[in-house]
């Protein structure tokens, strides 16, 4: 843990170097070049947004699970049911980036034909930041909703064991700004990745993020990760987590609740994660230009909201990530020292040709 004598160290790498490294590492697992490139793009984008809890921090466990053959490097994703505006896909135990992208792409195709498209997914894996998929719809001028279920890691305050996952959901919409509206939240106070990141940075965590394995509040990220997450907004976040599990698992015939395996605690087993992707074509109500004008009015009203501190301004969902991306594209992506060396060792172990190259911040 951090103390007064420890100094947090961050190493900066360029977007281009990180993408080339990830592409090489994924390829060394036997992943097809196109698939490796898609995974690399997803992870780099996540770190550019500043969502470091879901970016390259997760690479070691992804690679471990691919090498354990519980994640297929080149899955055969196929339709197993449904028609018209609602279809079901089998992810074939593929990495979540590939399965999630395929599912949202199909939802967008269905929405073009039917004004709305929904694609449920069974037998997938952790898919990173849900905003990646909601953003695909926003980029196409549509509304996107992406959600996924997670094995139980969430305990209600006072509970003695977790009973549901922190099940994330993201909603995206086009705007007239330089960035789309992108809301991406999990149903826990913070994601488990925030605890992992705090551990890498040797930082303590707030007492309302997690409990230890006995259900006691803790400021130790390692004890919190080994224990339970606390729900967002008490019973509200808890209830929404249940609803997402119903949509991603119960109604699809896929895994839900304790049927989902933890990628960290059970790295030798397929996780059986489920997703739900929904795309809505707003053209049935308003045309593209009218939508742009209405969203401009919507956003300007929010931006004009007075703040008690006049030096601050209201930020829209997705705006902070956009600003972070501009900053990191110019100055580099920060990587905690421990994680930098862990990734470098992983690359060497896989005989990757590309290496991570530090740049001056």
Question: What is the gist of this entry?
Answer:
The chain has eleven helices and twelve strands. The protein has 361 residues and is of the alpha+beta class. α4 (96-114) links the parallel β3 and β4 (116-124).
Tell me what you see in this structure.
The chain is α+β, with helices and mostly antiparallel strands and 361 residues long. Helices cover 39% and strands 16% of the residues. It is built from 11 helices and 12 strands. The protein has helices spanning 15-28, 33-48, 59-67, 96-114, 131-139, 192-200, 221-226, 235-250, 288-303, 319-331, 337-349, and strands at residues 10-13, 78-83, 86-90, 116-124, 143-148, 169-173, 181-185, 210-211, 228-229, 273-280, 333-336, 358-359. It has a 7-stranded mixed beta sheet with strand order 2-3-4-10-5-6-7. The protein has a 3-stranded antiparallel beta sheet with strand order 11-1-12. Helix 4 (96-114) links the parallel strand 3 (86-90) and strand 4 (116-124). Helix 1 (15-28) runs antiparallel to helix 2 (33-48) and helix 4 packs parallel to helix 5 (131-139). The model is unreliable at 1-5 (pLDDT under 50).
């Amino acid at each position: 843990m951090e103390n007064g004598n420890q100094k947090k160290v961050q190493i900066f790498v360029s977007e281009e170097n990180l993408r080339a490294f990830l592409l090489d590492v994924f390829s060394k697992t036997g992943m097809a070049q196109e698939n490796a490139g898609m995974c690399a793009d997803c992870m780099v984008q996540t770190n550019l947004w500043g969502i470091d809890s879901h970016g390259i921090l997760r690479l070691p466990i992804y690679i471990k699970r691919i090498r354990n053959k519980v994640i297929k490097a080149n899955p055969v994703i196929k339709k197993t049911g449904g028609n018209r505006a609602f279809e079901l896909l089998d992810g074939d135990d593929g990495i979540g980036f590939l399965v999630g992208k395929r599912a949202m792409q199909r939802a967008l195709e269905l929405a073009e034909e039917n004004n709305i498209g929904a694609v449920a997914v069974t037998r997938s894996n952790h898919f990173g930041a849900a905003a990646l998929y909601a953003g695909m719809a926003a980029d196409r001028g549509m509304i996107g909703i992406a959600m996924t279920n997670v094995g139980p890691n969430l305990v209600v305050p006072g509970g003695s064991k977790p009973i549901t996952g922190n099940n994330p959901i993201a909603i995206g919409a086009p705007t007239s700004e330089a960035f789309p509206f992108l809301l991406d939240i999990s149903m826990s106070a913070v994601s488990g990745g925030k605890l992992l990141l705090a551990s890498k940075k040797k930082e303590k965590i707030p007492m309302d993020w997690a409990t230890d394995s006995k259900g006691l509040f803790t400021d130790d990220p390692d004890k919190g990760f080994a224990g339970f997450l606390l729900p967002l907004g008490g019973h509200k976040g808890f209830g929404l987590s249940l609803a997402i599990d119903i949509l991603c698992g119960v109604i699809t015939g896929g895994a839900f609740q304790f049927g989902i395996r933890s990628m960290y605690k059970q790295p030798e087993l397929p996780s059986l994660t489920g997703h739900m992707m929904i795309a809505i074509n707003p053209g049935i109500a308003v045309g593209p230009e009218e939508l742009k004008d209405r969203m401009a009015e919507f956003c300007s009203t929010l931006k004009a909201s007075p703040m008690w501190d006049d030096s601050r301004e209201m930020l829209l969902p997705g705006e902070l990530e956009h600003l972070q991306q501009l900053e990191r594209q110019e100055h580099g992506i920060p990587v905690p020292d421990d994680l930098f060396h862990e990734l470098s060792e992983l690359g060497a172990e896989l005989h990757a040709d590309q290496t991570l190259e530090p740049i001056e911040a």
